[in-house]
Structures are given as C-alpha cells and as structure tokens.
Amino acid sequence: MRTVGVEEELLLVDPVTGEPRALSAAVLARAAQDGTGEENLEKELQDQQLEFATHPQADMTELGAEIVRCRNEAGRLAGDIGAAVVALATSPLPTSPAIGMNSRYQWMAREFGLSAQEQLTCGCHVHVAVDSDEEGVAVLDRIRPWLSVLTALSGNSPFWQGKDSQYSSYRSRVWGRWPMSGPTDLFGTPEAYHRRVADMVATGTVLDEGMVYFDARIAARYPTVEIRVSDVCLDASTTVLVATLVRGLVETAAREWRAGREPVDHNVGLLRLASWRAARSGLEGDLLHPLTMEPRPAEEVVHALLDHVGDALTDTGDLDRAQKTAAELLRHGNGARAQRELLERTGSLGAVVTECVRRTQG
C-alpha cells in the first residue's frame, strides 16, 4: 500500500481580532524551548504562516489523527505566545504580509516584486510514494485532468483583503501569478521531465528544482509525487479526503501505465480553464468534466472522480469513507461556503476567523 504524507500551511492570527500576526519565528523558538513539535514545523514565505508535515502513513485513519495532532500542537505553541493558528487558505481580514528574512525568501521578494509580497496563501500538499521516476512521470501524465476537482473540493479562500473575491479558491488564483506554476503538458519520460525542470532553472528565473511549482511534480527530497493544487482545508476530514483521492489517483494512474493505457491528452489551455472553473465555482456550480472538458454539475464530476479511483480505494479499504465525506461536502459545502455562511450569520470577518480557529482544532 502506498504511503501518503501531508503538508499543511496555517495562518497565525490574533485570537481575539482574527488579524494575521507575523510570529512564525517566535512560535518556532517556543517549540525549540519546549522540546516538542519542532521537527514537524517550518517557516514559510510569509512570517504570518506556519507549516507542518506529517510522517508517511499507509492508514488514512492514522493520517487523520496525525493531522489533528499537528494542528493542535501548532495551536498550543502559538497560544503560548498569544496567537492562534487557523486553517484558512487566505486571510479574510486585510493584512500586510511580511516576507521571512532568510536569503531564499528575500531573493524571491526582489525578483518577483508585488507577486511575492502579496503571496499570503496557505495550501495543502500531498505526497504519495512511487517506485521510480519512470512510474512517477507516468502518474503525472495521467492525473492531470483530475486535479481541478481537488481544487473544487478543498476550496477555502473566498475572501481577499477584506472583500469577497467571488471565488471558492482565490488562493489558487493568487498562486497562479508565479511564472513557474500551473498545469503541464505530457512529459512521456523521466528524461523529458528532468530536462524541462533543468531548462527552467537555467533561465535564472527560479533558483532550483524546489522552486518549480507545477500543479503536480516529482518531489525533490522524497521518492514521491507531490500534488499541490489544494487549499488548506478548514476541517481535517476534508484533508483526509483529498489525501485519499490523491493516493487513489496515483495508484489508478500507475495501473493504467502498467496496462499500457495512454494518458488523456488535454492541452494546457483546457487544463487552465478547468482549474479556473474549479477555483471560481467550487462545489456550487458546474465544473469541467475531466474526460470531456464539458461543463457538468459539480456533483456529477465529483462522482466521476470517485468512480475513476473506485477500484484503488476499494483495495485500500477507503472507498466507503471517501464516499461519505464527499457526500457531506456536496451537501453542506466546502470551507469557502462555511466562511460565507459564518459571515452572513455574524456580520464580521473577525468572527469568521475566530470561529474557524475553533474548527481548525475541533
């Protein structure tokens, strides 16, 4: 059974006002002093962010439990210095992001200007084990059409600088400003993949392989493929669903490759449209069907994804749980809908954040 690891980026906020606070260095210092949680936590581009990474897990129940533990540990450490963590992919309240002082982040600030300075977004990255670069590239080529559905399921960033963006995942639109981000053409071979990455690095626009922000890529540090299209999810159960579906996509793609089935050859232009549609609509309207690229109701497209990975999820014992969690999301909505409903009920973006702090660690 393939192992799965999750990286989640969290916002650091004032527990009373909900405003982002640039305290990642202080939280990490507290973790070092405390002697717990330090190995799981990292800084991110902005000082208002904190990232944690789980261990590789084969069992999705264990993965979910570790996500909750990591969220709670980050919340405890933040609470020790008068802050809180919240699983929101953008800040609902206006903020002035503060870029971290390490040399890599400062280079990005100089090179990319306002795009880097405004990039206070929190994503969820899922790593799934693969046996080789050959298998990894075969997987990347075959999962491309399905990634936009993960964006729709995970959408959790409706607000930007105090305004409703009219998007379910505005994070993905802000992230798309990076010139090295987004969907890719078919690679075909590991050699073609690594040549593409090397050519990008050779332009001087990116520092190294780790700064090539494809929607899905071969991880630089681990024997995994890394899928990077999801918002950080408000509820840990949604994160587990995304991770489950990603593992199912990877296993299904690997089986198709071994069986000699060719990947669907949608061009990058169509994939970008599918990504935009998912970011805009979330689960509230039509999505582009991954196989036909025709607009279809979100519920139909989500069920198409579940059908596509059904055999793989059956083999790992995950199908029933995935179907139930997806049905709940379709019934009650994703994080973006939850945030909008909170605003309608409370009339306050600050209250949206403080309630989401509670749900992050619930």
UniProtKB/TrEMBL annotation:
Signal peptide from the UniProt entry: none
Coiled-coil zones: none
Pfam families: GCS2
Reactions it catalyzes: L-cysteine + L-glutamate + ATP = gamma-L-glutamyl-L-cysteine + ADP + phosphate + H(+)
Keyword Ligase on entry: yes
Top-level division of the source organism's lineage: Bacteria
Alphabetized UniProt keyword annotations: ATP-binding, Ligase, Nucleotide-binding
EC numbers for this chain: 6.3.2.2
GO biological process, one term: modified amino acid biosynthetic process
Enzyme class: ligase
A molecular-function term among this protein's GO annotations: ATP binding
Family under the similarity heading: Belongs to the glutamate--cysteine ligase type 2 family. YbdK subfamily.
Function (record text): ATP-dependent carboxylate-amine ligase which exhibits weak glutamate--cysteine ligase activity.
The protein, known as: Putative glutamate--cysteine ligase 2
